Amino acid sequence: MKKILSILIALIVLGIVAALALAYAPFKPTPANETLAADWKAEPGRGEYVMRAGDCMACHTANGGESMAGGRGIESPLGTIWSSNITPDKETGIGNWTLDQFRAAMVDGVGGHGQQLYPAMPYENYRFMTESDLRALYDYIQTEVKPVKNEVQATSLTFPFNMRFGLRAWNWLALSGEAKFKPMAGDEQQIRGQYLVEGAGHCAACHSPRTTFMAQDGTRLSDASFLTGGMVDEWTAPALRGKDARVQKWTAEEIAAYLATGRNAHAVANGEMALVVEHSMQYMTDADLNAMAVFLKSMDGQPVEAVPAKVAAAGPRSMPALPADEAGKATATLLTSASPDMPVGARLYLDNCAACHFVSGKGAPEIFPELQGNAMVLGKDANPFVSVILNGTSVPSTSRRPMHLAMQGYADRLTDEEVAQLASFIRNGWGNKASNVSASDVSKVRKHTQAAAAPERAQ
Ligand code: HEC
Ligand code: HEC
Ligand code: HEC
What we know:
- The chain has helices at 9-14, 16-23, 46-54, 56-60, 99-108, 123-126, 131-143, 166-174, 188-198, 204-207, 252-261, 271-279, 286-297, 329-337, 344-352, 354-357, 383-391, 416-427, 439-452, 455-458; strands at 73-76, 79-82, 230-232, 235-237, 393-395, 405-407.
- The chain is mainly alpha-helical.
- It has 3 domains: 5-174, no CATH class; 188-297, Cytochrome Bc1 Complex, Chain D, domain 2, CATH 1.10.760; 326-458, Cytochrome c-like domain (Cytochrome Bc1 Complex, Chain D, domain 2, Orthogonal Bundle), CATH 1.10.760.
- It has a two-stranded antiparallel ribbon. It has a two-stranded antiparallel sheet with strand order 3-4. Strands 5-6 form a two-stranded antiparallel ribbon.
- Strand 3 and strand 4 form a beta hairpin.
- It is globular, with a radius of gyration of 23 Å.
- The protein starts with 8 loop residues before the first helix and ends with a helix.
- The model is unreliable at 454-459 (pLDDT under 50).
- The chain binds heme C (3 copies).
- Residues 3, 51, 54-56, 58-60, 74, 81, 83-84, 86, 94, 102, 105, 111-112, 117-118, 120-122, 126, 137, 155 line the site of one heme C.
- One heme C (HEC) binds next to helix 16, helix 17, strand 5 and strand 6.
């Protein structure tokens, strides 16, 4: 899983001098944000649940490796950062760690050898977790996770990024405010949703923009830029907040279904979001999924409709194609006419795509995603969209929606020029508005994705 690691650019900007000054100040760990009795024990299952909510397994498990034994390479422009072994193995994992050491990693970004952790580990968000959740997680790792002896390759970035102490200065800039969750003015359900989204769920790591120092710009609801959209590699992580955010037009019920199953009547989750659904969100309870959905809908004080207790209860639906709406009418009429002098892009759409995504561009709910208003189609960077056309894509199977959906790629069938015409047509059909795609853009994506064979994206 490639992550948000141009963050490291920050170090250059900061300069080593400032870093040195701070580096010699002794480290003061943030104390627990809640007092628990020494013999406090989490109810059974809670620690594992917190691990799912925080998606620890995704980053801390290597491809084909043992669960949580680390060694997953996270690519950054400056080199690969290897995730740590967080199984309770005493030599190579965190089996000897105290709770205080664990808290320092989660809250202050300080690792087992007192080293500053790279913010590839999302402690910018985990620091809002409650002490009871951290403790449940710590106990779970120490007593329920299988210890695995696995010496993870050391991360060695190029100078000056190998100077981990520089991150002291970075943290000083990036970690604003107290390491404590601040509940919004709302009811219990909204507050629970806010807690999960801001804390363990680390949604801001992808969905908030970045500051000049590559820190998350907006880690809490009270920050103006919180969840207003970010980039992960070259993928757009769409805005979840504000009037242009597509999810604000979905019902809370539809948002919950998307999180739980990676699909709803409007969209499917691809790329990094498919992984979030597969490894984390699908394990959340209906109550927590609803809480997150209701929170997301009410972030700016909008009223939210009540949600049914059961998430995605309707089962895989096969609904008839929806007719084109006002904005989509002209494009649907053009496609239906199938006239010989239709633009090349429209012709290619009719021949290759309309069977599933329909002339209305609306697809079929929960099966074939809508291309009208689609965040990936309209992405600032068209590469992920072009990659889907060339290489296909798939939606993971989840317990609530076991059916695995896949779309084939068209790399063998369409030339670069054809893909460019087709993509430009879709980016401007049915009321969509986005820049055109050129044949040379397509050629670059073709070379890049075929070299990488995109195994991670296809899942
Ligand atoms: C987005 C990827 C990502 C996620 C999600 C993630 N981690 Fe990490 N974590 C990392 C990376 C990368 C490192 C190593 C950073 C470094 O070497 O500076 C790390 C380091 C750590 C360390 C320090 C280990 C040591 O030996 O110093 C601990 C503890 C840890 N993670 C626990 C967790 C837990 C618990 C979760 C889930 C709540 C979690 N991580 C989720 C990427 C992640
Ligand atoms: C590792 C990065 C990452 C994390 C973490 C992440 N997302 Fe996403 N999210 C994405 C990307 C990328 C997309 C776009 C997916 C696509 O184009 O198919 C997305 C799409 C979405 C969408 C659909 C938006 C639309 O307009 O189609 C919702 C809703 C969403 N995410 C909610 C969340 C929530 C809630 C969390 C936290 C629990 C979260 N995401 C965590 C990367 C991430
Ligand atoms: C046989 C049916 C079928 C055909 C034909 C088809 N698709 Fe798809 N398409 C799907 C399915 C199923 C998905 C959902 C899989 C996914 O997104 O992971 C999908 C997903 C997509 C997505 C991702 C949408 C999102 O929200 O992430 C895009 C973009 C797309 N198709 C465009 C096209 C284009 C362009 C063509 C023609 C070249 C085409 N499709 C042809 C079935 C089809």
